[in-house]
Design goal:
The structure is a homodimer of 244-residue chains. Chain A folds into 2 domains: 128 residues, Jelly Rolls; 87 residues, Arc Repressor Mutant, subunit A. The relative contact order of chain A is 0.15. Chain A has 8 helices and 10 strands. The longest helix of chain A has 27 residues. In chain A, helix 3 packs across helix 4 and helix 5 crosses helix 8. A 4-stranded antiparallel sheet of chain A has the order 2-6-4-5. A 3-stranded antiparallel sheet of chain A has the order 1-7-3. Chain A is of the alpha+beta class and 244 residues long. The structure holds a DNA duplex (30 and 30 nucleotides).
Chain lengths: 244, 244
DNA sequence: CGCCTATTTGATCTGATTCAAACAATGTGG
DNA sequence: CCACATTGTTTGAATCAGATCAAATAGGCG
């Protein structure tokens, strides 16, 4: 069953990276599936599963990750409303990583067959998904460049820049502030850092006057400066809308 | 094992991850384009380019990489004959990373339009490419897991395992040895390590009796052990053929 | 042989981890 | 509304994996 809003998160998200026609939009918003609400810190898909449906995020914050034998977690990406973090399960039987919630989330589980059918009927939608997958890969590469070759505070600055733009692209950020639902431990897992070091690096960014925060709310005081420290260049996100 | 040497590298490569029909194979091997030979250590595509053709590797070793403002290089992936490292340029105008040769290479530059046409005529070939892109992403994730969360010798062990299997899948490795055309500096750039540390970690793997090497030739003395140290599980490569 | 590029070794330094404990928020149930 | 538990943030000190610097070998190869 599905509800009907003016614009579903999926349409809004694809809109930010691809020009859709009216017909394509309405087809997308009519995708069938079952809605499920999942508490924070729970797995949606687990490494080695072979799901027959994929999950569209309606609300919440989700991540993809993998755990080392030594029990260390590496987060690969964060996902927001409109994303389908396990779209790849459409073409790859076994999934090679887990997907878990960060915050309580509302997800729409869409049968693979429905997505395939949609792609057959609207080849440009397939193109949009393909494009999204490629952008996903580009984000990975930026991530890897940071983890492999940049210092802690620079990685963090980059992550904050990226999240800000992505959230703004889907209407979840204000002019220069947004809700950041990540703990410092989660940031560390994403960037290959210890919690302690994330904490000290954040303090440094604050001391430099680049950011400020109160509770979950993060304010960007100096976008230019933050971008520079993080060596952030938004091109790789391939967003359609221009950037502040 | 099979002995079809008349096939092109591309067919051989896709064969290793996807079941192609005879008609699809011959269409693939008839892809047009211009062959160019490129010396070692030269760029094929540069970050921010917007190429109108993509390059199929016929011979040689190629990598994708990006460089930090501080001048540090991070290699994202290595590519071997049959790979099309910049296939993504088909759907993403601007390329977000550079592609460069490691060894002297022979490349076939195929116009985007020819690939698009092929995908239209043979949708299953499009599926195969899509699948290849997804596997590429899976390789990235493994890579990132290592760089972010594993120790140096473990990352190296993992890389060696991966290269061995991939090379064997396309017929470029023997039972337990292969030509490894990488310098220690390049391994470092791939794994986020300094040359010196790569050297010492390799010595450690040798001392453990896991590998041996003479010149460019690398021998795997203890596959089990190497896999364990690297926490290597080949599932993510999604190779069709079973593994030793 | 001599040149250039890789590998190896040694010594030193440092960014980041780890361990440990205090502190702040937030939430829970009585 | 308070005591208490829980989870996240912050601080401090000790330690370590890996970086950096510097210089000595060892291979290839024209």
């Amino acid at each position: 069953m599905h509800g009907h809003r003016a614009e579903t998160p999926l349409v809004g998200k694809l809109d930010s990276i691809f020009a859709l026609s009216g017909e394509e939009r309405s087809a997308l918003s009519r995708l069938p599936g079952s809605i499920r609400e999942i508490a924070a810190d729970h797995d949606v898909v687990r490494e080695r599963d072979a799901p027959t449906e994929c999950c569209l995020i309606l609300e919440g914050f989700v991540c993809r990750y993998k755990v080392t034998d030594a029990g260390k977690r590496q987060i690969f990406s964060f996902h927001t409303p409109g994303d389908i973090p396990d779209l790849q399960s459409l073409h790859l039987e076994v999934i090679d990583h887990s997907v878990g919630t960060i915050t309580p989330s509302k997800l729409l589980f869409i049968p693979h067959e429905a997505v395939r059918e949609l792609c057959r009927r609207f080849p440009r939608i397939a193109d949009a998904f393909w494009r999204d997958t490629l952008i996903d890969g580009a984000v990975f590469r930026q991530w890897l460049l940071g983890v492999g070759r940049k210092e802690a505070h620079s990685r963090i600055a980059h992550l904050l820049c990226e999240l800000f733009l992505r959230l703004r692209a889907i209407g979840l950020a204000e002019e220069s502030a947004f809700e950041l639902p990540l703990t410092q431990a989660e940031i560390g897992d994403a960037l290959g850092l210890s919690t302690v070091h994330v904490n000290r690096s954040l303090q440094r960014l604050r001391a430099l006057g680049l950011i400020a925060s109160s509770g979950r709310r993060l304010m960007i005081r100096d976008w230019r400066g933050l971008s520079e420290v993080g060596e952030f260049d938004p091109t790789y996100l391939h967003l359609i809308k221009a950037v502040a």
